Amino acid sequence: MNFLFKRKKARDEPTAAVIGNPTNVNHDIHVIVDSDGLLKGLPSSWVRQIGTQITKAEQNENPEVVKKVLQYYNYSVKKQGAQGPDIKHIYTQKDIDEESKEIDMYLKSKDAHKSKDSNLSDDSDKSLNFNRASLSDGDPSETNSNNLLQSRDLAQSLDNLTLEADEIEYRRPSVKEEDRRSRMTDADYMAEIRKICNPGNPLDYYEKTLKDLGSGASGMVFAATNRRTGELVAIKDIDMSKQGKKDLLLSEIKIMKNFQHGNLVNFLDAFVVDYDHLWVVMELLDGGPLTDVVTETIMKEGQIAAVCHEVLQAISYLHNRGTIHRDIKSDNVLLGMDGIVKVTDFGFCANVTGNEQRETMVGTPYWMAPEVVTRQKYGKKVDIWSLGIMIVEMLEGEPPYLKEPPLRALYLITANGRPNIPRWNQCSEKLQSFIDACLQVDVDKRSTADELLLHEFLRERAELRTLTPLIRAAKKILHKT
After folding, report:
1. Domain at 288-478, CATH class
2. Which of these is catalytic: 122, 292, 327, 383?
3. pLDDT by residue (tens digit) across 121-139?
4. pLDDT by residue (tens digit) across 284-325?
5. Residue 276 and residue 269: Cα distance in Å, rounded?
6. Which ranges in the chain are annotated with CATH 1.10.510.10?
């Protein structure tokens, strides 16, 4: 604080008063439709992003939706860019609320007037309208290839659209504890992590196979077998030197050790290797992701019911422990060759395995509930909406809007709400009722996981072993046998 009391240097001669730049400037964005029916008020950088993905008619018909979609999209890109490579964390309602506040603040910041795909800001043009030749009323699907590629490049930055709050706490620490945490160094956190990990050598417990399962920002993943039981496992090697927020990782190891359920890809063990590498051992299912089955085979209603029943048990378990998954989709449902169904991709075990064919789709919003963008009553029931979209996957082979660029898909989800289901008339009344219970735009009318577990559609579920022929067929088609 000494600099506050330094003596000012004497000025050699008097100078004219200088008026400084204004402080606490509010950059809030106000979108309006003017008397000519044109949407006005968006930053010019946002207008450039829209390209031909949202027509003039749509912009003028749903100006608030356009505003919220662009706000959410750009916040997502900004947040991911600011954080850099990191691991996904467990989410609670408190974290969702904090994220909503951050998004509201983002709209009032100068960053909101800039976009990741442009170095230009809109400081010289704060109220640009949409009456441009580049924005036609034609079919947005006719977007030229450059715009589409640009949109998909942006999608790579979204990190599953799971926006991580700057600080996530799983319990409210005391002032004394917060003070202790602020004094802890990376070495201190590594020492704490080491205390709760298995102190042994992981290679004494597990034997590496020749199969690598992939790599990501937070580390590489490889397969191994338990030397005692012969069980196949996945081991994620996390380079701790590249991880900030080691306090969160410490908290999550403690949480995940207590998260054990028959329909979750469970945490099995953890080791610290070579001082700064964390090896996280998880279950590995040999049937692959549900994605392979839905894209390559036709599922019967009884099989769809069986998958929904198992996934709902996992969702219910998480929800009853105050945790929101936020990324339910076929890629994150893994199958055993015996038909067992398990949910993965939550907490630091995210992306233990991946589907290479759909890796380019990471960060896209196709399973997202409308309230994620509108922030209205955003909570546990986002997982139920995503389950409903996953049922559409099982019926149609893909989720709605999959062929649309991410920004366009976000708009359609928010503006349209419940998507059209081409095979709706081929569904039984019980399946239609079940889908209705999942895909209610009004969150209050959408069922909970526990309510859906009692739905009559699930009473007619097939045995899990009936999934085995589909898994084998998909593996054969995809040359994964």
Report:
1. mainly alpha
2. 327
3. 444 333 333 333 333 344 4
4. 888 999 999 999 999 999 999 999 999 999 999 999 988 888
5. 17
6. 288-478
**Edge-to-edge strand list for the sheet holding 206-216:** 206-216, 219-226, 232-239, 277-283, 267-273
Is 327 among the catalytic positions?
A: yes
User: In the structure encoding, which two tokens stand for residue 74, read together?
Assistant: 């750009």
Q: Where in the chain is the domain with CATH 3.30.200.20?
A: 186-283
Domain 186-283 has CATH 3.40.50.620: no
Which pTM was predicted?
0.74
Q: For residue 108, say whether it is annotated as part of any ligand binding site.
A: no
Q: End-to-end distance of the chain based on CA atoms, in angstroms? A: 67
The per-residue pLDDT of the chain, averaged, comes to 75
